[in-house]
Specification:
Blueprint lengths: L5 E6 L15 H14 L3 E5 L5 H9 L9 E7 L11 H8 L4 E7 L2 H6 L5 H17 L3 E7 L1 H7 L1 H14 L3 E6 L6 H14 L4 E5 L6 H10 L4 E4 L13 H11 L3 E2 L8 H11 L17 E2 L2 H9 L17 E2 L7 H10 L9 H18 L7 H11 L8 E10 L7 E10 L2 E9 L2 H13 L10 E9 L10 E8 L4 E8 L2 H28 L3
Parallel strand pairs: 1-2, 1-8, 1-9, 2-3, 3-4, 4-5, 5-6, 6-7, 7-8, 10-11
Antiparallel strand pairs: 12-13, 13-14, 15-16, 16-17
Helix pairs in contact: 1-2, 1-11, 5-7, 6-7, 8-9, 9-10, 12-13, 13-14, 15-17, 16-17
């Protein structure tokens, strides 16, 4: 563990993060994320580039109305374009108009860029950086200087790159940020260069790493280990091209493993929640396999692993998942052993610790392995597994029985495509016969069974299918191949997943739908029993 280092946290989710493909945030979205980051304990929130688009300009107007507890808002922009017009530069004045206490100003520190892109001399580039930073400082703004392409520039010409940093420092930049803009630097290069810069620059150093080589987190941590005290990144690692350093990985590594401290106590146990919430606001799927915060980060599937985790979780977990707001998850599959089954039984409140526990667990393991060989997948359908488990102990029995079903599909040039299902079910000896139409046979079946059950179980009116996935298991068999259907269902408060497998896609869908409704009814009855209490 390194000596305790105080870190300043700079989040650029609202600026660099929104440059990721497919990300588009409204002003309202950006304000909501701003509140989340402030509550989390971020020091500086980079809100956008006020000179580039009306949306960012609107954000900087409206963010002034937020009562932030800790964070300071930062506007982003470039150095002036012309040396003889610094004080009239449109971009610099847009930054001042945003009225943020901090600005992040980027300038060229790679000679290749200054000569090829800006087409100016080394002296002119140095002067642009100095005068731009000095202009901001004369207007009372703190300047964070982003040394764009610094690592590439240093590798190309160390003297040129250092001269540009010194110009920013001399002009009053409070923090000098070394940027691996192309994301191509290796950890040993970052370590060596940071050490050399530390000998030349007195101002606090920062790191801004991109992930094009899958090294942004590693480079960020190594930079801190070698003297950097200002860390930039984004929630979930979103950003240009392959993204930025992922703060959801950087922060727990810094705080839990490297002994770093922050100016405000971080709510690290909210990290997983924040990762999911930001993903939802951005209308993207939460990072399923991400370190620390992903759904699978603390999931265990192999029987040997689970057996060890039940004795001491440290055997197969690098940290306590609760430290980052995550939870341990034991999966059930054909790789499972009896430990997986007993763990799940305990998790579901089932007492399998008696002398028959091993026998019951062995029977379930055998069933699961057989079913998964046939194509079932229970690590993605835990509701179906719970029904399987509880049916073995007779804690669960189906709430309805299908006596007959017929599916009709009509299509052709002269008629619109129509799917119709005729369904006859039985509940406690009573029979309900119903007909329903849908946009397809599975939709019609889904509508028909809910319609049939309403008389007996009115609560099913609140249940909705929210996701439906079909996977062909044996592609070589063509249209006769077996398929696996996974569905996710919700009652508006909770969601659960179920599975069905068959050569007939309608039958596989029915299995999943049937499990889904049975699971809902079982859980609803259990809650009602608890609320009612003893007679």
């Amino acid at each position: 563990m390194m000596q305790k280092t105080k870190i300043e946290l700079f989040d650029t989710t609202l600026r660099d993060g929104t440059q990721a493909e497919g990300i588009n945030l409204s002003v309202k979205d950006k304000l909501r994320i701003t509140r989340i980051l402030d509550e989390f304990g971020i020091d500086i929130i980079e809100g956008g580039w006020p000179g580039s688009n009306p949306r960012d300009e609107a954000y900087f107007r409206e963010v002034k109305g937020l009562k932030l507890e800790h964070a300071r808002i930062c506007a982003f922009g470039s150095t002036a374009r012309k040396l003889d017009a610094v004080e009239s530069d449109t971009n610099l004045n847009a930054l001042l108009k945003a009225e943020t206490p901090v600005v992040s100003l980027f300038g060229k520190t790679w000679r290749f860029h200054s000569r090829t892109s800006l087409q100016i001399t080394d002296e002119e580039n140095e002067a642009l950086i100095f005068e731009s930073v000095a202009y901001m400082r004369r207007n009372g703004v703190r300047v964070v200087f982003d040394a764009e392409h610094f690592f590439d520039g240093f590798k190309d010409d160390p003297q040129f790159a250092l001269t540009m940093l010194k110009a920013a420092e001399k002009a009053g930049a409070e923090t000098i940020v070394l940027c691996d803009t192309n994301g191509g630097s290796l950890p040993d290069q970052v370590q060596r260069i940071v050490r050399e810069v530390r000998e030349e620059i007195n101002a606090p150093l920062g790191i801004h790493a991109h992930n094009d080589s899958e090294l942004a987190v590693a480079n960020t941590l190594l930079a801190v280990a070698n003297g950097v005290t200002h860390v930039q990144g984004t929630i979930n690692g979103l950003g240009e091209r392959c993204g930025n350093a992922n703060l959801c990985s950087v922060l727990p590594n810094l705080l839990l493993k490297m002994g770093a401290v922050t100016s405000q106590k971080m709510q690290l146990d909210r990290l997983s929640e924040i990762s999911r919430t930001v993903a939802e606001i951005m209308n993207i799927a939460p990072p399923h396999r991400a370190a620390f915060v992903g759904q699978t980060a603390f999931s265990h599937k192999g029987g040997i692993h689970v057996s060890a985790v039940m004795k001491d979780s440290a055997m197969y977990e690098h940290i306590d998942p609760h430290l980052v707001g995550a939870s341990r998850k034991v999966l059930v599959s054909d790789l499972s052993g009896q430990s997986n089954i007993r763990y799940k039984a305990k998790e579901l409140g089932m007492d399998w610790e008696d002398q028959n526990a091993r026998q019951k667990a062995a029977e379930v393991v055998k069933s699961v392995k057989t079913l998964e060989h046939e194509g079932y997948q229970f690590d993605g359908a835990e509701a179906s597994f719970e029904l399987l488990l509880k049916s073995r102990t007779e804690e669960f029995k189906p709430y309805f029985k299908v006596l007959d079903s017929r599916v009709y599909v009509r299509y052709g040039e002269k008629w619109p495509t129509v799917s119709e299902v005729v369904l006859k079910i039985q509940v406690d000896g009573e029979v309900e016969h119903t007909v329903a139409e849908g946009v397809g046979p599975v939709n019609a079946l889904d509508i028909a069974v809910r319609k049939a059950l309403l008389r007996f179980y009115p609560a099913v009116a609140d249940v909705r299918l929210v996701d439906y996935k079909v996977r062909v298991l044996d592609e070589k068999d063509g249209t006769s191949a077996k398929v696996r259907v996974l569905i996710e269902t919700s009652d508006g408060l909770n969601s659960w997943s179920t599975v069905g497998v068959s050569e007939n896609i309608i039958e596989a869908s029915w299995q999943a739908i049937s499990d889904s409704l049975n699971y809902f009814l079982y859980k609803t009855e259990a809650v009602s029993t608890i609320q009612a209490g003893p007679n």
